[in-house]
Amino acid sequence: MPTMTPEQLKSLVRTVPDFPETGIQFRDITTLIGHGEGLASAVSLLAERAKAADAQLIAGMEARGFIFGAAVAAQLGLGFVPIRKPGKLPIETIGEDYALEYGTDRLEIDPGAIADGQRVVIVDDLIATGGTALAAAKLLRRAGAMLSHALFVIDLPELGGAEKLRDADLTVDALFDFEGA
Fold it and tell me: Quick check: helix, strand or coil at residue 131?
């Protein structure tokens, strides 16, 4: 059971101005995950929402999605599917390429990690432009997942990522948001 509110959790996130470049307000969750009660509360709040979505499996993107996603899965007694960067899995994978500001990247999963029609919920730390989360959603659906929800600790609504996911028929929920890029 969470002991801290989303607003209290928000106060644990450090804002680093002008990182990685001038004009960016970087939302650093290391201060939240380093706070025991804060981390436990964030995981509990996400787990409540994943349970309400009837999750049978939790998926999270490398790297910070592993922190929150695996903790949510453990709290709910569910399995966890790591969505990896290329070349990290020792088996044949399926993958999804997606656009970055300059170039492309790729996500991969074990195609046998999801049973056809299994209800999967994505859990990650932050939704910004949505490129990674949208690629993860496409990949999970290709693997047979029934995917309807994506949960985040933080939403940066001005960057439009949550809206892109909603356009892809996902319910998007975040514990709190930050205005500004």
Answer: helix
Considering its fold, how many domains does the chain have in total? 1
Could you tell me which residues come within 8 angstroms of residue 56 by beta carbon, excluding any fewer than 6 positions away?
78, 118, 119, 120
Structure tokens at 158: 């001005």
- Would you say 72 and 50 are in contact if contact means Cβ atoms under 8 Å apart? yes
Closest CA to 122 of 166, 152, 100: 152
CATH of the domain at 125: 3.40.50.2020
Structural domain harbouring 68: 54-177
Closest CA to 108 of 130, 80, 136: 136
Q: What does each C-alpha distance from 7 to 4, 42, 166, 175 come to in angstroms?
A: 8, 11, 24, 9
pLDDT average per 10 residues of sequence, the chain (181 residues): 93 95 93 98 98 98 97 98 96 93 90 96 96 97 97 96 97 93 59
Q: 45 CB contacts (<8 Å, ≥6 apart)?
A: 2, 6, 9, 175
What is 18-78 written as a DSSP string? T-SSTT-EEEETHHHHTSHHHHHHHHHHHHHHHHHTT-SEEEEETTHHHHHHHHHHHHHT-
- Region for residue 18 given its phi and psi (left: phi exceeds 0; alpha: psi -120 to 50; beta: otherwise): left
